[in-house]
Design brief:
The protein has one domain (about 1-15, about 45-210). About 35% of the residues are buried. The radius of gyration is 18 Å and the shape is globular. With about 210 residues, the chain is mainly α. Strand 1 and strand 2 (about 75) form a beta hairpin. The longest helix has 22 residues, at about 105-130. It has 9 helices and 2 strands; from the N terminus they run αααββαααααα. It has a two-stranded antiparallel sheet. Helix 1 (about 1-15) crosses helix 8 (about 190-205). The chain has helices at about 1-15, 50-60, 65-70, 90-95, 105-130, 150-165, 170-185, 190-205, 210, and strands at about 70, 75.
Length: about 210
């Protein structure tokens, strides 16, 4: 399933983007329309380095750096263990005074570690206290334990995209999130709501749209 999630992350990041009108800003599921492709005026992108990633994740998920991801329960993932893999440099510990000229082979794993741990913490906090949820606020379960696809469900998807990209999701992206939950539930109904919250967050925050700017 996780391979499919990675494929979904790439697919979502390639979805088309356009400027939203005030009518399209509505959180109703019916208001998400397909977007038109808009070319970049600069035609150049840069990859977020570790400090940028941690600051962005902290702002989007409403958590401190020490809440995002800790190795051995003590060390922030981007400060030492995965610093070089995530595009940083370590002059004091490794005598590295320049950024790596090539992307390290461990970079994808380091991104997965940082983003998945961060999303897992945010999802757990929101599920435990949905009324105070930062992303997954007021989500509900049906009598048979399924995640209720009510307004709060779609608001959570909308909120995730707005905080991450300052835009609403497209209809294609919303449908992908719906399909992701169905697949998770069919594979294992127990904990499906939390698993969906974790992986939907991961899909968005490990996408090309987030990793590059």
């Amino acid at each position: 399933m996780y391979l499919k999630v990675l494929i979904l992350a790439v697919a979502l990041s390639a979805c088309e983007i356009k400027d939203m009108t005030s009518e399209e800003q509505s959180t109703s599921p019916a208001s998400y329309d397909s977007a038109a492709l808009v070319g970049s005026p600069k035609a150049a992108v840069k990859k977020r380095r570790v400090n940028q990633m941690q600051r962005s994740l902290s702002k989007i998920l409403g958590m401190t750096k020490n809440q995002l991801c800790l190795e051995l329960g003590k060390i922030p993932c981007g400060d030492l263990v995965h610093k070089v893999s995530l595009g940083g440099m370590d002059a004091y510990s490794n005598s590295q005074y320049e950024y790596a000229s090539r992307e390290p082979v461990t970079a994808p794993m380091a991104v997965d570690r940082l983003v998945l741990a961060s999303c897992s913490t945010r999802a757990s906090l929101d599920i435990v206290n949905p009324a105070q949820g930062v992303i997954f606020r007021d989500i509900n379960l049906t009598d048979d334990g399924r995640l209720s696809k009510d307004q709060a469900f779609y608001d959570s998807i909308n909120r995730l995209y707005q905080r991450a990209f300052l835009r609403n999701p497209t209809a294609t992206e919303v449908k992908a999130m719906e399909d992701l939950y169905v697949e998770i539930y069919e594979e294992n109904p127990i904990g499906a709501a939390r698993n969906w919250a974790v992986l939907s967050c991961y899909v968005v925050l490990s996408s090309i749209e987030f990793l590059f700017y």
